[in-house]
Structure formats: structure tokens, C-alpha cells
Design brief:
The chain has two helices and ten strands; from the N terminus they run ββαβββββββαβ. The protein is an alpha+beta fold. Strands 1, 2, 3, 4, 5, 6, 9 and 10 form an eight-stranded antiparallel β-sheet that branches. Strands 7-8 form a two-stranded antiparallel ribbon.
Length: about 140
């Protein structure tokens, strides 16, 4: 069941977020963002359901061919981070939501295609994406 998502990544989105309702719109957004933000820009998106923006939140970072994810919701109020199946960033990395720095733990960078797939999963299910492996901030595997 697809739901609508509000996507924020620019200071102009406070009152006018990008609204995504179809998987193809996720792909189009990722193409546009990868064209707008070069590798090294580490842009961070905040994504929430249109119908209930306080129920859960997915943060999706894009930095060239890699990205990061953070999910929090009623099922994971403390939040969980993406975890690469192969060693990736050995140290914490910073992604930027407008001008705010957000730190992600070691091994949280995954291929950008996995980030895109997770956003599609979130759009279609309304739940924590199951298409990626998750870790809490302490680095312990989360099923």
C-alpha cells in the first residue's frame, strides 16, 4: 500500500515539501539530486509520511555513489542506522540537512542504489525499510 511522503532537503521546503506518491518519483528525485549535488556535498533528506508525520521518519543521505540511512519510529524510537554488508566508512561521516551537520556511525555508508530502494520500500510499506541491514549507534546488528 503506497502512501504519500513529504521530503525535505532544502530550506525552501519548510512550508512546501516535495511530495512523493509513486516509486518512479523517488527515482526521479534521486536523479535530480545526484545532478544538483556533486560527490562530497553529502546532502541529507528528511522523509515523513504525509498522513502522520509524527509516526516515523527516514533520513536518506546522498553523496555521489554512496549514501546513508537513519530510521526512527514507534517501532524504533531510539533510531537505527544503515549498515554496510562490507566495510565502508571506517570513521563517522557527516551529512548535511540544509546547514545542520548530522553524524552517521562507522560502516553506515551503503551504495546509493540501496538508499533509493529503502526510500521506495518506506513509500510502499510505511514501515522501516527491510531492504537494508540496520545498526544502532552502538554498532550492534538490528534484525
Amino acid at each position: 500500500m503506497a502512501q504519500g511522503l513529504n521530503v525535505y532537503y532544502d530550506d525552501g521546503h519548510a512550508d512546501n515539501p516535495v511530495v512523493i506518491t509513486e516509486p518512479e518519483e523517488v527515482r526521479e528525485l534521486f536523479v535530480a539530486l545526484r545532478g544538483k549535488y556533486s560527490a562530497g556535498s553529502a546532502v541529507l533528506l528528511t522523509i515523513v509520511p504525509v498522513s502522520d508525520p509524527w509516526s516515523s521518519e527516514l533520513n536518506a543521505g546522498i553523496d555521489g555513489d554512496v549514501g546513508v540511512l537513519h530510521y526512527s519510529g514507534e517501532d524504533h524510537p531510539e533510531g537505527v542506522y544503515s549498515r554496510s554488508s562490507t566495510p565502508s566508512n571506517a570513521e563517522p561521516v557527516i551529512y548535511y540537512y540544509v546547514t545542520a551537520d548530522t553524524e552517521f556511525p562507522p560502516n553506515s555508508e551503503v551504495p546509493v542504489a540501496d538508499v533509493e530502494a529503502a526510500v521506495v520500500d518506506y513509500l510502499t510499506t510505511g514501515h522501516r525499510p527491510e531492504s537494508v541491514v540496520w545498526q544502532p549507534t552502538r554498532g550492534i546488528h538490528v534484525p
